[in-house]
């Protein structure tokens, strides 16, 4: 019997010794749980204390004789559930009613190998030996008015010539999300022609590269597309199972003035009619990260030439249809994008068609870009190739011509909010010397 | 008699690790909890990923979804990142991107305790949160994920 007892004691001792070895990985969990319980108890005490104080105050006999105290802003009925803890409600209340501020900015240095001036944008002075500029600095404000209604505004301070800055209300939207199938926005929006304009909006920090592809550049910086409009935008999911089909429909006024790219100092006032843009895109469940989409855009535009500095109208060339001529502008887009496992593979193609109303002139301008990058730790090397081919007879894009070439470089993320980019560009231009450029950029979000 | 006496402690010794491993397995599951008034009872893993990625923003009845997540370093946070297929850094950048795109009002509120998650889930009808299965408390409605409840074989959030 004594032998049995000793055996049992040894076995239990051995069990006791082996148990901590097995359990040692869970010790931090136990501590974590205890700390968590202490925190929860502390929160509970705070809530009880606040409720107790509230009861004391309301039960105080001299309260009616006291002067009325200012009342806190009433919270939602849901938020005033007696069990709701104060910190959660306070934070949520701010998120529900307060203004959320975010922002972005950039600091650039650019140099080109050609002194012949082209269009300078974002503060870059063309024809110089290279210079620093600050590009776009944006303040991004959002506020939720009700559970389904919110306001979004994007105020951008854009550097112009000689360190002058202009303010651009790049987006201002009153948004109403009825459900996932119907989300409406009213105000100034960025047109959802293609993927890039939707995905990267205005912030350089969002982009892998230091600049936008030419075809997706903002129209006010010489880009080809009407990137902004004022009107209504509707988007949402279409029940489609694993295909995850979404739609977008926009109707608004563009009224774009586009400066010429070739540095002739002229701008084109397109006097856009009301534009219509409809699109579809799919994000199949079967291949996460894949997005395929297409869009169709139509409006009517003019080709009124303006002096880029004074805004005064400039006589049209003698061989042009004149200031009163209007063109049907149709833009067809298709894209395939894959973003997963650190890969970024963007491919977008455009066909921009201008047809003289009442005439026989029709011009097709094809454009595309492909961009590939891979995240390797904090570094993301990238490669982009872009192509735009506008007919020299197309008076609307006669400043664009044929341009194509590669860009490559790398983005280095110092942390989650600051990135440094270095980019080399080589652009072949029809009738002009090739253009080589180096661009360095700090981009940040806050 | 002597043989049976030998067996008893041996069986106890063998049983203890089994019990411990079972308990550890239970703590590994993370439950998906919603407000008790929300009629939803089940979600697919894809739906769950879309919800916590902010791609799906309303419940089928149209009620806006209110996301609540745990702070970094917690078991629920690890499960959230696993669900989304992101690192902590990618998660932060993802939400900054979503906000600057205008696709989200703000990054989901990160709460330091499951007690606060419970309060939030109780307070907001459209709330959804991930809670360690051991910390489920009254007022939290647990939904099935891929037809499974926490503790079931094949439960995805393990």
Task: Please explain how this structure is put together.
The complex is a heterodimer of chains A (446) and B (158). With 446 residues, chain A is α+β, with helices and mostly antiparallel strands. Chain A has helices at residues 2-23, 27-59, 86-97, 196-200; strands at residues 99-112, 131-133, 136-144, 149-159, 165-179, 182-190, 228-238, 245-253, 257-259, 266-269, 274-282, 290-301, 304-307, 327-340, 343-356, 362-374, 379-389, 402-413, 418-429, 432-445. Chain B is built from five helices and six strands, in the order αββαβααβαββ. Chain B has a six-stranded mixed beta sheet. Chain B is globular. Chains A and B meet through helix 1, helix 2, helix 3, strand 1 and strand 3 of A and helix 1, helix 4 and helix 5 of B.
Which helices and strands, and how do they pair?
The complex is a heterodimer of chains A (446) and B (158).
Chain A: H1 2-23, H2 27-59, H3 86-97, E1 99-112, E2 131-133, E3 136-144, E4 149-159, E5 165-179, E6 182-190, H4 196-200, E7 228-238, E8 245-253, E9 257-259, E10 266-269, E11 274-282, E12 290-301, E13 304-307, E14 327-340, E15 343-356, E16 362-374, E17 379-389, E18 402-413, E19 418-429, E20 432-445
Antiparallel strand pairs in A: 1-2, 1-3, 1-20, 3-4, 4-5, 5-6, 6-7, 7-8, 8-11, 9-10, 10-13, 11-12, 12-14, 14-15, 15-16, 16-17, 17-18, 18-19, 19-20
Chain B: H1 2-28, E1 30-35, E2 42-43, H2 45-52, E3 66-70, H3 75-84, H4 88-101, E4 109-111, H5 114-123, E5 127-132, E6 140-145
